[in-house]
Amino acid sequence: MIIQIENAILLIAANSLAWFAVIFLSGFLWRQRPPRMFDHERFPFKPFGFEQDGTMYEKKMKIKAWKDMMPEAGGVFKGFGKRHIELRDTAYLETFVRETCLAETVHYTIMAALPLFIIWNPPAAILIMIPIVLAGNIPCIIIQRYNRPRLLNLIRMREN
Question: Is 3 a domain residue?
Answer without folding.
Answer: no
